[in-house]
């Protein structure tokens, strides 16, 4: 019977190290997904909130071949990475609040807000009256009217919703604090007073996605533990074989 030659220790080490990097890339990708999902869950009650999605892609595959005869074995993936993050800006259902300074947009438009960084846009129409009588958002920034000036609240504590500026944006992108930026592409939809747009986060889907991501993370973690044990055996056993 012809004995099989034991592979050299460096070859085994390179193989298990490659698996270590593949598993680690999967863990990093799942950490990004979990951060996005956690942020979506935290904004379940934020009016006009839009959830984020992360899409993954794999690194280029490496073709493996038999070192003895050169016969192709097949491709080996080198892990995954977050390719891009996208935001679903689809309108969510509107709910009546009865509050005179709550506003919701019927359509895909955005309210215009004047901030210290310039004009920003939002779907969150939960506004209030400032000390100077102007309409402001939750951060105290002025809500703009169709004339480009801050909207003033009437003596009866109300604002005609037709005075509020709404715009439609081309390729909107999140900036933080509920604000959005983008090129103005036209007028937005009609404004309804005494209503707010609900958060677009689906709590059931968010929890399912979080559990799936956590299990994928744990699976990669178990792979790393197994690889670590393999490396330890390689260092203590394979390298000690006579003639290696």
3D structure, described in words:
The chain is an alpha+beta fold. The protein has 2 domains: 9-88 and 201-240, no CATH class; 94-197, no CATH class. The chain has 2 helices and 15 strands. The chain has helices at 9-42, 203-236, and strands at residues 52-58, 62-65, 72-76, 80-87, 94-96, 103-106, 110-115, 118-122, 128-129, 135-136, 142-143, 166-176, 179-187, 190-193, 195-197. A hairpin with a 2-residue loop joins strand 7 and strand 8. Helix 1 (9-42) packs antiparallel against helix 2 (203-236). The protein is elongated and about 95 Å long. Mean pLDDT is 83; it is low at 1-9.
List the helices and strands and how they pair.
Layout: H1 9-42, E1 52-58, E2 62-65, E3 72-76, E4 80-87, E5 94-96, E6 103-106, E7 110-115, E8 118-122, E9 128-129, E10 135-136, E11 142-143, E12 166-176, E13 179-187, E14 190-193, E15 195-197, H2 203-236
Antiparallel strand pairs: 1-4, 2-3, 5-15, 6-14, 7-8, 7-11, 7-12, 9-10, 12-13
N-to-C SSE string, H for helix and E for strand = HEEEEEEEEEEEEEEEH
Low-pLDDT regions: 1-9
Q: Approximately how much helix is present in the residues?
A: 25-40%
First-last Cα distance: 21 Å
Shape: elongated
Class inferred from helices and paired strands: alpha+beta
Family: Belongs to the flagella basal body rod proteins family.
Protein name: Flagellar basal-body rod protein FlgG
Subcellular location: Bacterial flagellum basal body
Pfam family, one: Flg_bbr_C
